[in-house]
């Protein structure tokens, strides 16, 4: 069976679960992000803050610093009870602090309500407060799975920003991903990468990772390969090399699949048993058994591949096809001790026959027949009979070929039956010649 793909394409590293918005951009980072945009807006004239309002906000801040959230909220609530004495800017500042208190309490729904009241003040609040609040709202809505609201607030923020960086587009790509709208997520991530390229800033590994996952889900294999080739070049690691090889396999690019796995192996990235067994399979598929044997043998020596009967049998097969008969015999002998059936001993009998080790050949054949589970039991009788014949044990050799003939009849193997009958006839003739010679003497 051709190994068209490798069972490894687990995109766990690229699946982006909902994360607190402080992780990627940061609540406190919204001000810094706004400054990053190099905004060149006209200064908005807003109502000034009274000394009384400033003192009350400072009092609430002191409680907030002490993590006495209840007292902070109480101060802010009293201020809002007298809202008719406050202008729009002051109301916005009170709700802004209220929103931060709720955020600190991890009550995100109430924090959203408070921040929405901030932006509702419109031109009454400073532009910086409006833009940072919009960005915060987008991230908070993302946290509570209000994805459409998160996108709406981010679009508003982008419309007010001048030359925004790639971060907001990445954020929107993550939101679309959570919505299951992969095409829209792709558009946003591509835009982010375009902005980063134009600004000559670094493109983060996880951006490529998310984009690669999205294209994989869309089965856009050319794009998946293109991005994986970037990842193995700029962020070389085992997962990317193995995924690259796997997609080459999916695309039936067998040579490229093998080259990718060989490159990963040479660079020392393949440290899992599955990786080495996959590389072994690809090399065997491309009829390079010696190289396949070397890879698997080193895996055993390095302790990366477990010495199971199956793995040892694979190594023995590779040495055998590479005409390294002695090495193949040694491996098969070790595998035979672990095997639950007689298939490995059947191979050993054949190898011993080719190597002229006829006594060991008979022993291996007997072990194969005793353990059973053979694909063609009649073949084992043939190996056994031939090795007995080479030892001049004609009677027992004939019995082995009779068993071969009977088994062939049972499974309706006409060619096997004819071959065994020919051996029986040959041995009978040989026995008669021997008797004639003996009588003549």
Structure report:
- By secondary structure, this protein is mostly helical.
- It has helices spanning 21-24, 29-36, 51-65, 69-81, 88-104, 108-119, 127-143, 147-160, 167-179, 182-198, 205-217, 221-234, 238-250, 254-266, 273-285, 289-301, 309-321, 325-338, 343-355, 358-371, 377-390, 394-410, 414-440.
- The protein has 23 helices and no strands.
- The longest helix is centred in the last third of the chain and has 27 residues, at 414-440.
- The radius of gyration is 38 Å and the shape is rod-shaped.
Would you summarize the structure shown here?
With 441 residues, the protein is an all-alpha fold.
Question: How many angstroms separate the termini?
Answer: 60 Å
- What portion of the residues fall into strands of 2 or more residues? under 5%
> What are the secondary-structure elements, in order, as H or E?
HHHHHHHHHHHHHHHHHHHHHHH
Low-confidence stretches: 1-41
User: What is the overall shape?
Assistant: rod-shaped
How is the biggest beta sheet arranged? none
Give keywords.
0% strand; mainly alpha; 441 residues; disordered N terminus
């Amino acid at each position: 069976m051709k190994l068209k793909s490798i069972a490894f394409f687990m995109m766990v590293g690229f699946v982006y679960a909902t994360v607190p918005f402080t992780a990627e951009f940061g609540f406190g980072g919204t001000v810094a992000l706004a400054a990053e945009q190099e905004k060149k807006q006209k200064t908005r004239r807003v109502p000034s803050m009274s000394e009384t309002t400033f003192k009350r906000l400072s009092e609430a801040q002191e409680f907030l610093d002490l993590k006495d959230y209840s007292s902070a909220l109480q101060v802010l609530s009293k201020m809002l009870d007298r809202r008719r004495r406050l202008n729009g800017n002051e109301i916005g500042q009170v709700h802004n602090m209220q929103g931060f208190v709720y955020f600190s309490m991890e009550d995100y729904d109430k924090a959203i309500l408070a921040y929405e009241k901030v932006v509702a003040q419109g031109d009454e609040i400073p532009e910086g407060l409006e833009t940072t609040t919009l960005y915060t709202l987008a991230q908070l809505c993302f946290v509570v799975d209000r994805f459409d609201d998160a996108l709406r607030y981010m679009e508003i923020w982008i419309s007010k920003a001048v030359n925004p960086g790639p971060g907001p587009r990445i954020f929107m790509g993550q939101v679309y991903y959570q919505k299951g709208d992969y095409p829209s997520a792709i558009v946003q991530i591509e835009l982010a990468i375009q902005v980063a390229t134009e600004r000559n800033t670094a493109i983060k590994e996880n951006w490529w990772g998310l984009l690669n996952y999205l294209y994989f889900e869309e089965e856009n294999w050319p794009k998946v390969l293109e991005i994986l080739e970037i990842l193995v070049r700029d962020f070389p690691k085992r997962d990317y090399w193995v995924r690259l090889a796997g997609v080459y396999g999916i695309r039936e690019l067998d040579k490229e699949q093998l080259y990718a796995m060989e490159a990963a192996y040479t660079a020392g990235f393949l440290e899992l048993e599955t990786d080495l067994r996959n590389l072994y399979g690809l090399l065997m598929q491309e009829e390079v058994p010696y190289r396949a044997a070397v890879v698997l043998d080193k895996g055993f020596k390095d302790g990366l591949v477990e010495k199971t009967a199956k793995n040892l049998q694979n190594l023995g097969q590779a040495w055998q096809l590479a005409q390294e008969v002695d090495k193949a015999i040694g491996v098969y002998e070790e595998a035979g001790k672990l095997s639950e059936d007689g298939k490995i001993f059947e191979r050993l009998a054949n190898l011993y026959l080719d190597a002229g080790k006829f006594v060991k050949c008979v022993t291996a054949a007997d072990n194969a027949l005793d353990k059973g589970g053979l694909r063609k039991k009649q073949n084992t009788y043939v190996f056994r009979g031939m090795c007995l014949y080479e030892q001049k044990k004609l009677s027992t050799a004939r019995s082995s070929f009779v068993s071969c003939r009977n088994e062939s009849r049972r499974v309706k193997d006409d060619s096997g039956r004819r071959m065994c009958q020919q051996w029986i006839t040959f041995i009978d003739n040989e026995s008669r010649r021997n008797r004639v010679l003996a009588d003549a003497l």
